[in-house]
């Protein structure tokens, strides 16, 4: 890469202009170091509408984005079933890739994708990038500074009645490659791996109480669709660092309770932000020296204020742009995405077999954002 290339704004092309593209475009077009130059979709007119809304100068199909010489990095917002195919096409076109989660649907194809990127000297980043938000960045620094002593175990909960209650096209969220485990699990497991390191083994149980669900909103309300995967999964994790965790992921709960994440240590317990959000409450409670009946009321929480600018989806793309220019590692890497995928597929295997499954992959420690990282500063 020449000095000029290393310091210019990164040209971004987006493939897939469905629901999630709105927030990506809102954020990416607000970052001075990013130049969104093209959008593409299976339905080109849908891409055209997004291009006009956000003043993007080129639009068309996926092939048009891949052929655009101004595109340095492709943001892959397609459905999970084609994530690997689209990412591979982008790498073969000489583009870096940021892909929505999950990075793929099987281990071998994902490993091959990472190998191709290595071979071509290109980078892959993988959602979620919520772990780059001020919530988890602040929590990670506080844990490193000893706020709870040595981390011992974690608990997370995501339970809802399901996306068929609000999504106009929910069938893909109950299909192979999704369900609560592969749709929501990436947020929780990516955040925890970023805090504690890789996961060594999992055990799990899953259930599919309804074989068919009904769309409840939008133009197709009343239509039914099949449920292909467990809609409730409970997972036990064992981390390489010696910690363990319990995790509930459900689309079957009348009680809506999402974003519960706690980490418990030798010198305190911490409430973490919702892993699906970029910001949230961070608070620590310390153990009592001794406990009497009078102590069993409300414990005193120590609030930890967030540090850093609040943005949203797309911050991982910005980190990649600056990392490419600075020749440093980016944070939400393809390797992290591949390890989290391995964990989730292993949980599927464990739920099906009833056996504990060892995780075959690992990932290097996940770094923090550089000190003073300002998404809205022009640095390139």
TrEMBL record:
Key words of the record: NAD, Oxidoreductase
InterPro entries referenced in this protein's UniProt entry, alphabetically: Gfo/Idh/MocA-like_OxRdtase_N, Gfo/Idh/MocA_oxidrdct_glycsds, GFO_IDH_MocA-like_dom, NAD(P)-bd_dom_sf
Pfam families per UniProt: GFO_IDH_MocA, GFO_IDH_MocA_C3
Annotated ranges, domain Gfo/Idh/MocA-like oxidoreductase N-terminal: 11-124
Residues of the GFO/IDH/MocA-like oxidoreductase domain: 136-270
Gene3D superfamilies for the chain: Dihydrodipicolinate Reductase, domain 2 (3.30.360.10), NAD(P)-binding Rossmann-like Domain (3.40.50.720)
Protein's name according to its UniProt entry: Gfo/Idh/MocA family oxidoreductase
